[in-house]
Design brief:
Layout lengths: L15 H6 L3 H10 L2 E4 L11 E4 L2 H9 L4 E2 L12 H7 L9 H13 L1 H5 L2 H15 L3 E3 H6 L1 H11 L6 H12 L27 H17 L7 H7 L1 E2 L2 E2 L2 H14 L2 H16 L1 H9 L4 H12 L4 E6 L3 E3 L2 E3 L4 E5 H4 L35 H18 E6 L4 E2 L8 E3 L1 E6 L1
Helix pairs in contact: 7-9, 7-18, 10-11, 11-12, 11-13, 14-15, 14-16, 14-18, 15-18, 16-18
């Protein structure tokens, strides 16, 4: 079959380099305006793959995520990369399943991440935020490593069930894995080096093997032990009467490690950047604390840490009137959907009072709605409340630096000064 041609060949929203330079809002806007369901030919962008349908409209992103029967996570996974069956099986997490297995896996960890359970950590979150700000206010700091990185790590370490002294190394490994296209993090660059020897490992990262071995050592010691931490739960879980395979325990743990840390970190760091660039909004929140809930949702919309996920059409169908063949890849761009002017009036205005705010930062609904959404909301809300009470201004002292990744919308450096009240 002849390769399909790019719908908008002059625009690139796929390359890692694009996202290192900045968020391609202008390109997203043009896609959404002229071709909200567009074909992207990967080989034309220097990538390997047969191409995919790119969705940038909020309505289409939500529709695809809710219709898991037509648009599957399990058939070929959730990454743009096309995996051979052995790699798909070896790298499978809860994300790469559809109901009913997805439902059964999710039920294992749902109690830990329920809204009610998360609310019990509110006082702990307030203490941690206070400690972080005590060290940062009035001093030159890095908004990523001195402020935003610490809170999610310290919140989730106990939930995961790993020794506190292991946390710095564990999260360093997680950075190396998920930022596999950034030479500042990864020992092997995914789009430059030969990663085929590691194609059976998550993110094609050799560091994934280190984490899987670490998880296995801890999991063996947890078997037959009572406990509510996630590592103990996974070590003793039965799904359809069978224990989780060792590899699936490891990839499940890695998913929770990354999802519980990376995404919230970038909501916090990019939230700081947004407040530095829009100082009136921090003053507004300080003057009116009743805006705290809407402010939390606006920071989550604005920062959109997860750039995209992929689905596969299981049958011939259509999206927005565009025919989609069975087996086609469909990529939903969360960040683009969160700036859709049909849903968010004046979307490029950072507005802490925005309401309603139907962002898709945690997914567009359906069975894969983000497991950690309540924990992320708690952390962002607690951080904003403390910031508004204690900080007069967020001042940039240097240029922010972005992660080289088309998967995570993140910062790796944010020089700043928090001016105290």
């Amino acid at each position: 079959m002849a390769a399909r041609q790019d719908t908008l060949p002059h625009l690139d929203i796929l390359s890692h380099d694009v996202y290192e330079a900045g968020v391609p809002h202008a390109a997203y806007d043009e896609f959404r305006r002229t071709a909200p369901v567009a074909w992207v030919n990967e080989t034309d962008k220097g990538h390997h793959g047969r191409g995919f349908w790119s969705l940038t409209c909020h309505e289409d992103v939500v529709a695809v995520h809710k219709d898991w029967r037509t648009f599957s996570s399990e058939v070929d996974g959730t990454e743009i990369e096309e995996l051979e069956p052995d790699a798909l099986a070896a790298r499978r997490t809860m994300l790469e399943t559809d109901p009913p297995r997805h439902t059964k896996l999710r039920q294992l960890v749902n109690p830990t991440f329920s809204k009610m359970a998360v609310e019990t950590y509110a006082a702990h979150a307030e203490r941690l935020v206070g400690e972080v700000l005590d060290r940062a206010i009035g001093r030159d700091a890095d908004g990523v490593y001195d402020i935003a990185r610490d809170l999610p790590i310290r919140m989730i370490t106990g939930l995961l069930g790993v020794p506190e002294e292991d946390a710095p190394q564990l999260f360093h490994w997680a950075d190396q894995i998920v930022y596999n296209a950034d030479p500042d993090y990864s020992p092997l660059i995914s789009d430059h080096g030969d990663t085929d020897p590691y194609r059976l490992l998550p993110f094609r990262s050799p560091v994934s093997l280190t984490v899987l071995e670490y998880v296995h050592r801890l999991a063996v010691a947890r078997r037959g032990v009572d406990g509510g931490d996630l590592l103990t739960v996974l070590s003793n879980a039965l799904v359809d009467g069978e224990p989780l395979p060792e590899r699936e325990q490891g990839t499940f743990f890695l998913l929770l490690l990354i999802a519980g840390n990376e995404t919230t970190r970038h909501s916090l760091s990019q939230g700081l950047l947004a407040l530095a660039e829009h100082p009136d909004q921090l003053a507004r929140l300080a003057a009116d604390p009743s805006l705290l809930d809407s402010a939390t949702e606006e920071v989550l919309r604005w920062t959109s840490p997860q750039l995209h996920f992929r689905r596969t059409a299981t049958v011939a169908t259509e999206i927005g009137g565009v025919p989609v063949a069975a087996g086609d890849k469909v990529v939903t761009w969360y960040l683009a959907a969160n700036f859709d002017p049909e849903v968010f009036p004046d979307p490029h205005r950072f507005d802490l009072g925005r309401s309603p705010n139907r962002h898709v930062t945690f997914g567009g609904g359906g069975p894969h709605l983000c497991l950690g959404q309540w924990m992320a909301r708690l952390e962002v809300r607690t951080f904003l409340a403390a910031l508004a009470q204690r900080v007069r201004r967020v001042e940039l002292t240097g240029d922010p630096k972005r992660v080289r990744s088309n998967f995570i919308n993140g910062l790796k450096a944010l020089p700043l000064h928090l001016v105290p009240r």
